[in-house]
Write a structure and sequence with these properties.
Helix content is 36%, strand content 15%. The strands form four sheets. A seven-stranded mixed β-sheet has the order 2-10-9-6-5-3-4, sandwiched between helices. A three-stranded antiparallel β-sheet has the order 8-7-12, with no helix packed on it. It has a three-stranded antiparallel β-sheet with strand order 11-13-15. The protein starts with a strand and ends with a helix. The protein binds pyridoxal-5'-phosphate (PLP).
Length: 369
Amino acid sequence: MNKKITVTLPLLPDLQEFIPYLEDIWDRKWVTNNGFYHKELEKKLAEYLGVEYISLFTNGTLPLITALQALEIKGEVITTPYSFVATTHSLLWNGIKPVFVDIDPKTCNLDPEKIEAAITPATTAIMPVHCYGIPCDVEKIQAIAEKHNLKVIYDAAHTFGVKIGGKSILEYGDMATLSFHATKVYNTLEGGALVVRSAEMKQKIDFLKNFGFAGETTVLAPGINSKMDEVRAAYGLLNLKQVDKAIEARKVVSDLYREGLKDVKGIRILAEPQGVRNNYSYFPIFIDEKEFGMSRDALYFKLQEDNIFGRRYFYPLISTFSMYKDLESARPENIPVATRIAEEVLCLPIYYGLENQEVERIIDLIKKR
Ligand SMILES: *Cc1c(COP(=O)(O)O)cnc(C)c1O
């Protein structure tokens, strides 16, 4: 049996290099609450990402929840059904009604042409996702938000290190969130961050992620506990040193898939965004069952027989889950593109350490079907 290949593997720092950091943490005995490595990682991430104000979190879901709380978002928020379920869950955690808007098949991101029709007097914000690390149409979304006086919170979980024309994608919108989960391009095992626009707002976020404490005896709001500990922060510093190398390796895999699959009938590949520093976080392909001669699910299970485990990100759509499916905007006829794409998509393995010959084997298996 061939070696098992999964959709991703975590980028891990060198264990020997990590041990002195652990020894130092043990010596300091300051293991969480804005410790030495926590401060260091915030500083280094701000530099690397090209942003001014960033707050670390314990995962990529709590910054979404906290962003909505900090901006006092209420009523309805326009969002995409084509994402990881955490995006929309953050709205329910704040008592907000999600309003799903369809996606653009060329990017899998919110279709800006369809946003305005979904705005009602109750709409207060837009929560788009830069799906697969491909930037949303940030200019159009900004223009709509300004016209209708809406906030924009980007779920940028897939977009670590992505830049447009040299500017960080995280600089768009009122806030942007990151996930440093093990499956992402950059990880701290579990972890995440919230990027904001002012020192005052960062202060507020730092209070909110520490129960709302603003000093020893003052609590400003019902905050959450989402403080990153020193072990993860140190791990994050080490991984930051090798993330560029990992993105380079992902590009090699992405180029091989593009070349190998470009002429296969019934397979659609998203265009690589131009003028963008990409991070190659996912490699989705879209199967047209009639042209390809096999359904997406049939291919998905066929590859598994050869020990290759892609993932159907994002199937099922968020809008089909029980807590969302009764919303008017969740009806398939209101989000036809997302509904179709969710049936077509298969994300192929892509990670640092995936070997060229393994990629070729996957390409050959897909071509043979
Ligand atoms: C991974 C992910 C999240 C959640 O991040 P966690 O760190 O796992 O909490 C949120 N949104 C999207 C789009 C994601 O892919």
